[in-house]
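pls design
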């Protein structure tokens, strides 16, 4: 079984999640960063797992556009989607904004890998937005962004199980 993990990551959190996911999957796994690597043709792969991180409610544009442009081919594959985000309560909405509805319906696994605010790496505008979001989160007593490695494991188990059948 061959799997491709296609991802985008702005400050590296999703990249680390994608690498962990690849280590936990059985069979051949190719990790592809859509911003730096060429995306190979889909034909050779049985399973495609696609993800990115959420900024102002939206996933990285290249991921969104790739899914839309390749929806017909993706529909024929075992599919999984993941996002990294700071706000678990907006998970369903973020997923809906990120990926085409007909692909979401056929996915074997859709997970929230949690998130991390990597302030030291952020450009100024992101730092300012993040400060505002953090203040609002605290004021509303909402939980802050946190990594969810258990969800990476959950996706790997679901995919490994489906491939063993
Ligand atoms: C400027 C900014 C805007 C963000 N907007 C959202 C958002 O709308 N919803 C959300 O759930 N998380 C939001 N986040 C949290 C990121 O999705 C989270 O930090 C994620 O771990 C980033 O992953 P990356 O390093 O792979 O890009 C935002 C973070 C920043 C810095």
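designed seq:
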């Amino acid at each position: 079984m061959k799997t491709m993990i296609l991802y985008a990551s702005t400050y590296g959190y999703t990249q680390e999640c994608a690498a962990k996911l690849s280590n936990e999957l059985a069979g051949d796994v190719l990790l592809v960063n859509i911003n730096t690597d060429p995306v190979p043709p889909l034909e050779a792969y049985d399973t495609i797992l696609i993800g990115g991180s959420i900024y102002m409610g939206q996933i990285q544009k290249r991921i969104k556009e790739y899914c839309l442009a390749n929806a017909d081919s993706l529909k024929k594959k075992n599919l999984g989607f993941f996002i990294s985000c700071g706000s678990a309560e907006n998970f369903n909405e973020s997923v809906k904004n990120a990926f085409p509805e007909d692909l979401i319906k056929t996915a074997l696994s859709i997970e929230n890998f949690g998130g991390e605010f990597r302030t030291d790496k952020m450009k100024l505008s992101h730092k300012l937005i993040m400060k505002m979001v953090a203040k609002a989160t605290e004021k509303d007593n909402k939980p802050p962004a946190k990594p969810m490695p258990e969800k990476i494991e959950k996706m790997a188990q679901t995919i490994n199980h489906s491939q063993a059948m």
